[in-house]
Amino acid sequence: MTFNYELVNKIIDEILPLPYQFGIDLEEESELPNWIEEDIMGHLSLVDPDARLYHGVSKLVIVSPNLGGVVIKIPFNGWFAEYEQGNYQFYEFYAANAGIGTDYCLAEYETYQDLKRRHLNCFAAKTLLYKKVCGFRIYIQEWTTPCEDDFEDHLPSPKSRQIAQKWKDEFYVDSEWIANCIDYYGEKKVEEFLHYCNYENDTISEDLHSGNYGYRDNGTPCLLDFSGFCDDM
Questions:
Q1: Neighbour count for residue 3 (Cβ, 10 Å)
Q2: What is the pLDDT of residue 233?
Q3: Average pLDDT of span 7-11
Q4: Considering only CA atoms, which of 56, 39, 51, 55 is closest in space to residue 8?
Q5: Among the listed residues 75, 10, 68, 82, the one whose alpha carbon sits nearest the alpha carbon of residue 43
């Protein structure tokens, strides 16, 4: 994977270490505090005015057209907590080097390596463990466009649509995306991939929505967030 190493390193050096104790409580709104987001964006803009910061509940993602076809992913650490009052349980996520909990970026990287060993990595955006800085693991992933942003330009063949219909209940993605996979990778390969997701690594299916699968620049379909989001942290 080739990319703008110099800019990637500048961005990493500029924003790390991130604030140690910022967090997301899934019982509340899943948002970073405004001052933290503004602080990180302020540092980002110093080295790349085009860079943008996105986040889910388990990772930060830095996107820029100047990175050379990749995104930078930095994990939050998450854990499962039980409170005495009300006896309810929930997830909390804190800065990536909090030292406890689950690194979902690492889970994604390990899944990519497993798919690669099985010759099924065409179904996932290439993911690298890039470096470790200030106790933070930094990951680089091939840039892709999620289906929620780009779905009208990928029309599958009628035959693949028909085949995909029989699998639509086995994998929680849009059947049009599965049909695109059949067009590009073949029915047998897609069947192997669905079997892998359903019976060998079902964490892939735990957090699939239109923002987590999409297409590469060359039009090939792939997953772009496949770390899962399981209840057994």
A1: 19
A2: 44
A3: 96
A4: 51
A5: 10
Query: Which structure tokens are listed for 159?
Result: 């035959």
Paired tokens of 195:
């079997």
Q: Give this prediction's pTM.
A: 0.88
Exposed e or buried b per residue across 135-151, where buried means at least 16 C-beta atoms within 10 angstroms of its C-beta: ebbbbbbbbbebbeeeb
